[in-house]
Amino acid sequence: MDLPIDLKRCDISLNGDLDPGRNIPVVPKSHEGVLTERELVDHKDQRVKFSSWLLNFGKSPDKDKGYSEYTVYSDAYRMAKFDKWVWIEGDGYRYPPDEVSNVRESWIDTDNAVLRIPKQESSKNVGNWTVSLTERTATAVERWKDEHQLYGRYTNSHLLWLTSQGNPYRSKSLRWLLHQLCDEAGVETGNRSMSWYTIRHSVGTLMTKERDLAVTKSQLRHKAPKTTMKYNQVPVEDHRDALDKMG
């Protein structure tokens, strides 16, 4: 994908308020080499939708009133700069949970209790990803692989799970599912932040406590060790106990 990309290049009509030669950036030249081709495509689509919303509704959604092109122009550059900082200093580019919606039966190795995601389907697209599963999860998936064949919506699908309407799971349906599970389990969600990322963070914290940062880094697929450090919330007493055991 050739950079930079602006809204005019994405066939978004503007009012012409900007000075000639100025275009609202979608993906600036500075992002070159930071994202993979797949990440660029996904990021571009998100930015086009967001910029269009700002122009048409951002200032007052109830009145269908958007921001001026000059405002969106300047904000777009600031957001692009912030995005790049997050990707470099943080854990790289974040996708919606593609692996969840695209997981195939062939990815699950229940005999060895692992999930193997091919590089071409991996959201970070940096190599094949093998992640451990608990024996309990592997058993549940094995049973589901037998059961889901009884439902008509899976007849022509290789996906491991679909919504009740026969669609792949997306962010909204996954969020709804999580809250349904919390309600069924009696977990109060009204006064707490509950998301799949929250669960991921909890898994990382507990795994660090039970094992070490290296295992957590591999399981969560972090590029930089400093990203994994935020999961090191092990109490001081546990560190002291470990030192005592070492003599």
Automatic annotation (TrEMBL):
GO biological process, one term: DNA integration
Key word Hydrolase present: no
Matches recorded under SUPFAM superfamilies: DNA breaking-rejoining enzymes
Alphabetical keyword list: DNA recombination
InterPro entries: DNA_brk_join_enz, Integrase-like_cat_sf, Integrase_catalytic
Domain (Tyr recombinase): residue spans on this chain: 99-234
UniProt keyword Endoplasmic reticulum, yes or no: no
GO function terms (MF aspect): DNA binding
A Pfam family: Phage_integrase
Protein name: Integrase family protein
Organism: Haloquadratum walsbyi (strain DSM 16854 / JCM 12705 / C23)
